[in-house]
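User: Mind token order:
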Amino acid sequence: MISLLNQGDIFIDLIIGTDLGYNDSITIKTKDCIDDKLYNLTKDFSNKVKKYEEENSDIKQLRILLFTLINYLM
């Protein structure tokens, strides 16, 4: 995967586990060091996923969740 990316590219794979026993996950690949962004992202993302799940998976909340992810990484 890393050989397909250019400097500044980011690959994101997002899974939201909605059934009991399934977990949320996010996989991020990049050639750049984004440690600071990832720390803040994981805190905020975790809170937003929890809110998304508590509000019965409202599509508006999902959009907010995805925009948050993109904004942190850009």
Summary: Helices lie at 35-54, 59-73. The beta strands are 10-15, 25-30.
